[in-house]
Amino acid sequence: MANRKSFDEICTHPPVVEVSSVASAMPIYPASVYQCESTSQADRLLSGEIEGFAYQRDGHPNAVALAEQCRLLQGGDNLDVAFSHITSTGMSALSLAMVTHLKSGDHVLLSDQLYGRTTRLVDEELARWGLEFSEVNMCDLDQVKAAIRSNTRMVVIETIANPLLHVADIGSLSEIAHRGNAKLLVDNTFATPLVVRPFEFGADLVMESMTKIMNGHGDVMMGLLCGKADLAKRARDALSSWGMTSSPFDCWLASRGLATADLRIARANENASCLAKSLAEHPRIKNVYFPGLPTHPTHEMAQQVLGGQRFGGMLSIEFPGGAKDVDLFIKVSQKIAFCPSLGEIATTISHPRSTSHRGLSEESAKRLGISPGLMRISCGIESHEFLEDEFKTILEAMD
Ligand SMILES: *Cc1c(COP(=O)(O)O)cnc(C)c1O
C-alpha cells in the first residue's frame, strides 16, 4: 500500500490534466467549486463583475452553455433577451420569475387555464407572503382589462394552454399588461421557441419546463427563465439565494436533447396534426381539440401566433363515456402509456381531471370544459403509420 503522503499526492490532490484539443462533445463539469487566482479575483468573480466560475450554485459551465443556447433560441439580442437561467425544475423557473419581480402587496393576474402547480404556487405559497391574485379567462380581452388592478405587477399566461390548447393573443395581452405597468410572464412549455418566440409579441419573461419537449427524452427535470435587462441583476441574485440552480449532468443531458429538438418537434407536430384529423372523424370520439383544426376555438389565433406551420405536438380528445372510457383506453392500450407528463420520445396520454387539473372544483372544471372524458395526447416521434395503427387497434378494442 502507498504511504499516506503519496496517497494524498495522487488522490486528494490529483494532477490537473490540461486538455488543449477541442472535444467533440461538451465536457461535464461536476465541480462544486473552482480555484481562485487571488482575493481580488474571487471578489470580482463573486460580485459578477467579471465572467468566470467560483461556486457551482452561482454558475457552472454546463448551465451557462445551455442557457446561452436557449437565450439565442428565444430571440437573443435581436429580441433584447438579456438573461437566461437554467433552473432545477420548471416550477423553480416560475418561482424565480415571481420572487425576482414581485413583493408582498402586489397583485398577480393568472390565466384560469394554467398548469395546476402554477396556480398552486401563487394561491398556496405566494399568498402566504402577502401577494394578491385573481384568475381570468385570457381569451376574453375585455375581462382581462377589467381584472387589472392598480397593484397588478404580473400577468401569467401559457402560450398553448393546458389541456384544451387555447392559444393566447400574446401581443394584446402584453399591451394590456404594460398599460397597467405589469410584466407579462409566458409559460411557453407546450410550444417551445421552435414553434413560437413570445418575446416577438412583447413578453417580458418567458419560461419553459425543459423537463418536457426541450429536453425531450423524459430523463431530466429542469426549467428555463429568460427575460429583459431590467430584471437581469435581480434574477441572477435570486437564482443563487433561493437555491434554484441546476445540476451540470442534467444540463449536459438537456443540451444533448436540444440538438434534436427541431427534428423531434417537426415529427411530433406532424403526428399531432394527422392524428387530430383522423380522430375528428372517429365515431367513438365526441370532440377533438387541436389548434391546427379549423374547428378549434382559437384556430385563427393559432395561425397568427404560431405562424401557420406548426401547431404543437399536443391534442386532447373527449370520450362520451367519461372517465370510464379513458380507463378502458388505458386498459386495452398496449403501447400508448398513461404518463401524466408530455414531450417525450414516445406518445403518451394523460387524464387532466385526475392529474394536472385534479384540484379544480366540479363547477370550475365544468366552466372550463375539462370533463372526466377528456384525454390529452402528447405525440412522440414514432412513424405516423405506427400511431394510426395503434389508435385504430385501441379504439376498436374499446367497443
Ligand atoms: C410541467 C409543466 C410545468 C412545471 O415544470 P416541472 O419541470 O415539472 O417543474 C409548468 N408549466 C407547464 C405548462 C408544464 O407542463
Plain-language structure description:
- By secondary structure, the protein is α/β, with parallel strands linked by helices.
- 38% of the residues lie in helices and 14% in strands.
- The protein contains 14 helices and 12 strands.
- The strands form 2 sheets. It has a 7-stranded mixed β-sheet, sandwiched between helices.
- α3 packs parallel to α9 (248-259) and α4 (90-101) crosses α8.
- The longest helix is centred in the C-terminal third of the chain and has 20 residues, at 261-280.
- The protein is globular.
- The protein binds pyridoxal-5'-phosphate.
- The site of pyridoxal-5'-phosphate (PLP) has 16 residues, from α4 and α5.
- Pyridoxal-5'-phosphate binds at residues 89-91, 115, 117-118, 158, 162, 187, 189-190, 209, 211-212, 221, 223.
Molecular shape = globular
Distance between the termini: 72 Å
Biggest sheet layout: 7 strands, mixed
Q: Work out the helix count.
A: 14
Encode the helix/strand succession as letters: HHHEHEHEHEHEEEHHHEHEHEEHEH
Helix residue percentage = 25-40%
Broad structural category: alpha/beta
Spatial arrangement of strands, main beta sheet = 1-7-6-5-4-2-3
Total beta strands: 12
- Name every ligand kind in the structure: pyridoxal-5'-phosphate
Low-confidence stretches: none
